[in-house]
UniProtKB/TrEMBL annotation, chain A:
Active site, per annotation: 258, 327
Protein name: 6-phosphofructo-2-kinase domain-containing protein
Xref: SMART domains: PGAM
Subunit structure comment from the entry: Homodimer.
Binding locations of substrate: 257-264, 307
Gene Ontology biological-process entries: fructose 2,6-bisphosphate metabolic process; fructose metabolic process
TrEMBL record, chain B:
Native source organism of the sequence: Culter alburnus (Topmouth culter)
Protein's name in the database: 6-phosphofructo-2-kinase domain-containing protein
InterPro entries membership: 6Pfruct_kin, 6Phosfructo_kin, His_Pase_superF_clade-1, His_PPase_superfam, P-loop_NTPase, PG/BPGM_mutase_AS
Domain of life: Eukaryota
Residue ranges constituting the 6-phosphofructo-2-kinase domain according to the UniProt record: 43-257
Annotated active site: 265, 334
An example Gene Ontology biological process: fructose metabolic process
GO MF term list: 6-phosphofructo-2-kinase activity; ATP binding; fructose-2,6-bisphosphate 2-phosphatase activity
Key word Hydrolase present: yes
Keywords: ATP-binding, Hydrolase, Kinase, Multifunctional enzyme, Nucleotide-binding, Phosphoprotein, Transferase
A GO cellular-component term linked to this record: cytosol
Length: 470, 477
């Protein structure tokens, strides 16, 4: 009887072993990633306007979603804009404006209600409640709500008294806000400063003593100091680590693939081949391009694979090799052409087209596995300033998806052609992207999702979107 | 149009692949050239001096030793320098707390001398011996002492990171004293009562002159203040990657008593045939072990036990027999033997004799072609270790190479020892943190299994005979 308990079957898509018979005891999730949260978590921002709350909210949400934790931002200001169609002036935010107070409280409650829906209906795991939440009273409301629903609460308070930072903040994101669409810059800045003053009157920061049983992180002056209190679990620990590694110093990240390789020319995936002659030309062109950018203290990272290292060699400056940047392991399909994969493993080929993100090659990896592997790279990229990452197609798609907030469905189909550098510059709440083709011809290695992804499709249907090769 | 300069630049250096680690390096005339490119990531440019701060019995030595163990395991050469140890060597016999009185001039002279001797050894370690991190473990409770240390660091080009531990909970302090002070060489000839009394008076000697790191006066320094054993942390000016990792680690460790159980999957079909790697299922004996494991776990009556497996069939099958929920970690998968997957050692010797010899020469750094090395494994396992630190009672069902890496972390084994640690099938290792280290209990669950441990043979030369290479291969079917 016991022996049959140990019968397993392997899920054909993700190659995860699951018990043959299911049972109440088994919390089986077919994911390649251990799940660490039991109860949903609310991250509650705290701080005066222009302290980076929305910046942190959006960035944190992007990071958590990328590592596979379903997360969503609930920006109360957005609810307010939907409720009060036209913004007149800072007077809306005066603490004695009873009419406005009613509206603002209603907006907060509406947002909380949506948080509840997100957790219960949409299977969300983390909700970021982005508002000033500057009074104890408001925080009490949130804590009560969370307790009633069984949600954990983690506060993120941002404190800053540096007028330069606040001024820069206002310039970058406030002046272009929908609230100020018809104002000139001077007026907008003046009004916004008065808005901040309205909040200052009633602002009660998290207190060392009174709030000692709450879980929170206080960020002082954009990260020169942190106070961390009562971290409860894994996800809060990861959030703290992430918040402590990000910075706002302007910098640029360059992403590109190795130069065209011998195997690229033959339409074969994976392997560890060297550069083709076109690939060498690209490497030289990359060197010229990089030198022409006059980048301060540029760090260069490659994988452990020959083709990225050869590419870096041409630039003539020191570089770091990261095994974590190696291309996705195609397991039994390594060094095959798509035609050969269709020939030998038609079912695998179809499954991959059905769910390219979660599909794991037999004895290989999935994009989902890649993201796990790349997380330390992202963390270090956040810490660094100017970096050039010379990597591979699947790897570059994962990194790009992180910076450009692409979903798991879009990620495996992002276009990352050879011989093209992506220049990423953080700006406002997101990332500016510039795509620079270095004018050296290369094969196309991008295979679009075909129309027919059925396991019993004809080979021609499967191979319709395979790019040309020798 | 490219200039002559660009054409010259366009010919990148030739690459050669180091046969042991399979790392591509530039070479000239077929010989590898020196290049920094081998490191996974550059941790620090200058060495780092970690300085503990705090009254006695605040966990400074506990933190120092644990942090040192972690950093060495992840590959950052680290050493701790305990000033109390220097004092014990200087003043052969400890009489009483009076030695530590702030008005004891003789005592003060000796203590200062010991601190300087320790700093001298720090300099030797960091600047001469190639160490990367030194942990200076002492009370360092006065601004004056810390200023001396910072001057020393500046003169030598070291970064300084302070780790201050503050605790006022009398229960925690008392437990501390019982666990590590009573057994100290200082109190070998005292009874418990006397020792405690004396130690409390010793703490008092420091209290009056204690100047904690100050939010204002020390705002330019890099430090972490740990309050009440991790309830709260204050982190100031983290400068670089290594400091960030140190902070993350310190924020994840705890001292709540718990046990960690490590074991391998039950004997697998490939084990029985002497083949490495693969993804086979359990043999009949392996299934028996799984059931025995289930009974063992039940008998242990462990509170809130978490069970972790890899994503390979044999560990999952083993966990299934326990009848409790478990988490699958891909990071716990066995070392990837690349082209040697599912081979017997005899076949590896036949097809890849050079590889087989290289592996015996440096088993830790050796990477299988298209596979991994133990060094790669450690990197892969770091998030597992971090989560193990956060958790309480955990049973990890894994694989031979993986278990060796985890064990090496808990028992502070070097990179040389790690790949030869004995982790036999059907044996559970129960690890319980105690004092500054880990108690290990080995429980064989009385189900026979093949031996999969291959010792390092005498002859590791690439020119050796097949028999010499295969001398230490364990028996199999």
């Amino acid at each position: 009887m016991y022996h049959s308990q140990m019968e397993l079957t392997q899920n054909p898509l993700e190659k995860i072993w699951v018990p043959w018979m299911s049972s109440r005891l088994r919390q089986r999730r077919g994911s390649s990633v251990p799940q660490f949260t039991n109860s949903p978590t609310m991250i509650v921002m705290v701080g005066l306007p222009a302290r980076g709350k929305t910046y942190i909210s959006k960035k944190l949400t992007r990071y958590l979603n990328w590592i596979g934790v379903p997360t969503k931002v609930f920006n109360v200001g957005q609810y307010r804009r939907d409720a009060v169609r036209t913004y007149k002036s800072y007077e809306f935010f005066c603490p004695d404006n009873e009419e406005a107070m009613k509206i603002r409280k209603a907006c907060a409650l509406a947002a909380l209600k949506d948080v509840c829906c997100y957790f219960t209906q949409d299977h969300g795991q983390v909700a970021v409640f982005d508002a000033t939440n500057t009074t104890r009273e408001r925080r009490e409301v949130i804590l009560t709500f969370a307790k009633e629903n069984g949600y954990k609460v983690f506060f993120v308070e941002s404190l800053c008294d540096d007028p330069e930072i606040i001024g820069e903040n206002i310039k970058q994101v406030k002046l272009s806000s929908p609230d100020y669409v018809n104002c000139d810059k001077e007026e907008a800045a003046t009004d916004f400063l008065k808005r901040i003053d309205c909040y200052k009157l009633t602002y009660v920061p998290l207190d060392d003593d009174k709030d000692r049983n709450l879980s929170y992180i206080k960020i002082f002056n954009v990260g020169s100091r942190y106070l961390v209190n009562q971290v409860q679990d894994h996800i809060q620990s990861r959030i703290v680590y992430y918040l402590m590694n990000i910075h706002v110093t302007p910098r640029t990240i360059y992403l590109c693939r190795h130069g065209e390789s011998e195997l690229n020319l033959l339409g074969r995936i994976g392997g560890d081949s060297g550069l083709s002659s076109q690939g060498m030309k690209f490497a030289a062109a990359l060197g010229t391009y990089i030198r022409g950018q006059y980048i301060l203290d540029l760090k260069i990272w490659t994988s452990h694979m020959r083709r990225t290292i050869q590419t870096a060699e041409a630039i003539g400056v020191p570089y770091e090799q990261w095994k974590a940047l190696n291309e996705i392991d195609a397991g039994v399909c390594e060094e095959m052409t798509y035609e050969e994969i269709q020939d030998h493993f038609p079912e695998e080929f179809a499954l991959r087209d059905q769910d390219k993100y979660r599909y794991r090659y037999p004895k290989g990896e999935s994009y989902e596995d890649l993201v796990q592997r790349l997380e330390p790279v992202i963390m270090e990229l956040e810490r660094q300033e100017n970096v050039l990452v010379i990597c591979h197609q699947a790897v570059m798609r994962c990194l790009l998806a992180y910076f450009l907030d692409k979903s798991a469905d879009e990620l495996p189909y992002l276009k990352c052609p050879l011989h093209t550098v992506m220049k990423l510059t953080p700006v406002a709440y997101g990332c500016e992207v510039e795509s620079i083709f270095l004018n050296v011809e290369a094969v196309n290695t991008h295979r679009d999702r075909p129309m027919n992804v059925d396991v019993d499709r004809d080979p021609e249907d499967a191979l319709l979107t395979v790019p040309e090769h020798n | 149009m490219s200039s002559t300069e660009d054409i010259i630049m366009a010919i990148p250096r030739e690459l050669t692949q180091n046969p042991l680690r399979k790392i591509w390096m530039p070479c000239k005339n077929g010989l590898p050239e020196k290049h920094i490119s081998q490191k996974r990531v550059c941790m620090t440019n200058c060495p780092t001096l970690i300085v503990t701060v705090g009254l006695p019995a605040r966990g400074k030595t506990y933190i120092s030793k644990k942090l040192t163990r972690y950093l060495n395991w992840i590959g950052v050469p680290t050493k701790e320098f305990n000033v109390g140890q220097y004092r014990r060597e200087c003043v052969k016999i400890y009489k009483s707390f009076e030695f530590f009185r702030p008005d004891n001039e003789e005592g003060l002279k000796i203590r200062k001398h010991c601190a300087l001797a320790a700093l001298n050894d720090v300099r030797q370690y960091l600047s001469v011996e190639g160490g990367q991190v030194a942990v200076f473990d002492a009370t360092n409770t006065t601004r004056e002492r810390r200023a001396t240390i910072m001057r020393f660091a500046e003169q030598n080009g070291y970064k300084v990171f302070f780790v201050e531990s503050l605790c006022e909970d009398p229960k925690v302090i008392a437990e501390n004293i019982v666990q590590v002070k009573l057994g100290s060489p200082d109190y070998t000839d005292c009874n418990t009562e006397e020792a405690i009394q004396d130690f409390m008076k010793r703490i008092k000697c420091y209290e009056n002159s204690y100047q904690p790191l100050d939010e204002n006066l020390d705002r330019e320094l890099s430090y972490i203040k740990i309050m009440d054993v991790g309830q709260r942390y204050l982190v100031n000016r983290v400068l670089d990657h290594i400091q960030s990792r140190i902070v993350y680690y310190l924020m994840n460790i705890h001292i709540t008593p718990r046990s960690i159980y490590l074991c391998r999957h039950g004997e697998s079909d490939l084990n029985v045939r002497g083949r490495i790697g693969g993804d086979s299922g359990l043999s009949p004996r392996g299934k028996e072990f799984a059931q025995g494991l289930g009974r063992f776990i039940q008998d242990q009556n462990i509170k809130d036990l978490k069970v972790w497996t890899s994503q390979m069939k044999r560990t999952i099958q083993t966990a299934e027999a326990l009848g409790v929920p478990y988490e699958q970690w891909k990071a716990l998968n066995e070392i990837d033997a690349g082209v040697c997957e599912e081979m017997m050692y005899e076949e590896i010797q036949e097809h890849f004799p050079l590889e087989f010899a290289l592996r015996d020469q440096d088993k830790y750094r050796y990477r299988y072609p298209k596979g991994e090395s133990y060094e790669d494994l450690v990197q892969r396992l770091e998030p597992v270790i971090m989560e193990l630190e956060r958790q309480e009672n955990v049973l990890v069902i894994c694989h031979q190479a993986v278990m060796r890496c985890l064990l090496a972390y808990f028992l502070d084994k070097s990179a040389e020892e790690l790949p030869y640690l004995k982790c036999p099938l059907h044996t559970v290792l129960k690890l319980t943190p105690v004092a500054y280290g880990c108690k290990v209990e080995s429980i064989y669950l009385n189900v026979e299994a093949v031996n999969t441990h291959r010792d390092k043979p005498e002859n590791v030369d690439i020119s050796r005979l097949a028999e010499e290479a295969l001398l230490t291969v364990p028996a199999h079917y």
